[in-house]
Amino acid sequence: MGHSRAQKAKTHKRIVSIASKKFREEGLAGVGIAELMKEAGLTVGGFYKHFDSRDDLVAEAVSSAFGGWKRRVDAAKAGSPPVSYEKLIDEYLNEAHRDNPGTGCAFSVLAPEIARSDKRTRALTSEQVRNDIELIAALCPAKDKRTARSTAILTFSALVGAMALARAVSDEALSREILNTVAELLKNSA
Amino acid sequence: MGHSRAQKAKTHKRIVSIASKKFREEGLAGVGIAELMKEAGLTVGGFYKHFDSRDDLVAEAVSSAFGGWKRRVDAAKAGSPPVSYEKLIDEYLNEAHRDNPGTGCAFSVLAPEIARSDKRTRALTSEQVRNDIELIAALCPAKDKRTARSTAILTFSALVGAMALARAVSDEALSREILNTVAELLKNSA
DNA sequence: ATTATCTATAGATCTATAGATAATGC
DNA sequence: ATTATCTATAGATCTATAGATAATGC
Q1: Cα A38 vs. chain centroid, distance in angstroms?
Q2: CA of B141 vs chain A CAs: smallest distance (Å)
């Protein structure tokens, strides 16, 4: 009990990181504060010294979930050679990503719940969608900037939708068909 | 109290219909049994004479939500002239659909929660995804059947993803850009 | 007699708060 | 002295069940 401020900052980050994972796995409405704190090795009581409300944590956790994906794409882009459009598609539309939503793209699993969330979370999401569109557009082998942006928006939508559908169906063959077909078509038409 | 069997069947349908709408509006985890029964003009106690469990209602309500969309597309297809691929896209990707999830496509709003639901609901979803792919493929102006099916899968994914993203962002201009861009690209590339 | 619905409630769980405790930080 | 965490709990809500009531259906 009663630890240092440095410790508190670390604890705060741990709670957010765990929430970010659990929310993607169970949904924003699917995990309680007690469970999250327990996973962080803490108890419920301490929660409200870290966050004013549950919505506060949701906003931070969603932001953190976006951050993970952003870091990965940024790193891939900055690599030499920078990651290709084709590679991005393959990194998204695969079975490992499908089977591990907790560490994957937040949009594919949280978009509908974010749509029902508070203004802060949705504003944060707008910003992230804008960033991701620009990121994908920068990788698009398109003629002009306008076309690249349009292609990026279609690509982004298809990635998110295909992943959501591939996870929702129980038929494994159908699930794979969705992932593979969308990946192939996106790569061939860009 | 104590009504006829015909009445019970009607009541059952009313509960499912209300659940189908509310689940799309608030998520599968976002509405309680008491609230649903109250909206149907009933009380909690009667619920379990209609359904063995909450999951039973979820399965029926999701099925019902799929049915609505299916009926609409079937009708459009059977019309003379049958609805075109372009028309289908426009009927999906518009602001009215975006702003009324309760009467819209269940995938765009429930896919992530369905992925966490029981086998029955997911099996039912597989069947519906299969149907919808075939439905869209039948409208695709593509060379051969294989190409039509691939295009249908990409189209379906892009529709669902674009709608989910358009609803998640708070920036109205960005939301519209997503809907319009995906609609235009799908129509031009098919 | 059966049953569709009602009222009432058990038992679990969820967000948030109050007050105690044990450490840090001045 | 302040504060990060703990235990305990209030008050709301959620699924599910028990038992009463008033209608149908034989």
Answers
A1: 23
A2: 16
